[in-house]
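Hi, does anyone understand the following?
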Amino acid sequence: MKAINKKNQVRKILLMPIEVISHSNFICKYQNKIYSGQSYGYGFDPDMSDFAVGFYEILYKNIIPENHLLTSNGQLINENFAGDTMNSFKYIANQIIEEKNKLGKLENNWQKYLLDYYNNYHCLANFWLVPMKVGRTINRYSKGNRRYQDYMDRYLNYLYENWDTLKREEYFDQFTSWQDFVNQHFLYKSYIKENYQVNNYSSSKNPEEIIFKMVKMIEERAESIASSHFCAELYAYFEKSGLI
């Protein structure tokens, strides 16, 4: 099979929405959606589904302790390495709806762009590996009155501005530099510009524009991963899982 065809198939799977099936240990694809069981035992969540864990263990095999995220009973080996969703939904959606209500634009139905985002944001290209304390155990990463996590640009700006301090901590000390962190997470030329500065987008007053840029960055990250040296290994993993 030609390399370009493999790349396109990998990219397609990276962008395909994932849904967790409880009490199941299989992975399958049906009507353009991936269904996965979950061994991680603390609430069903696509970014810690068995399918996502297998993805992390390929993409982050150089930094994951013992090359595995979970023990045999579904517990994290190290809480500094846990799957999380990069661009989430609830907080941002609530902000959009609240702002429209303030303007007297009461709407019982979601805007199409918001519904489309909701139906597709749980995908591998929108998942990464971060410490549990800034990912799974809190709704947002806050410092004072500023909120970061639900807006990737704000969170990445925080990391960039505090890198010299953060790099002394476990997890962050796995990366030799800010540039290495960016590259290993495949953030370059999507969330991060060519000069390694953050690509800011969340200050826009237009909620549709914010969602559009978030979706574009997810797609750009999928392209970056699919174009990397991990493509063949990811293709083999997706093929073994019955998705290709």
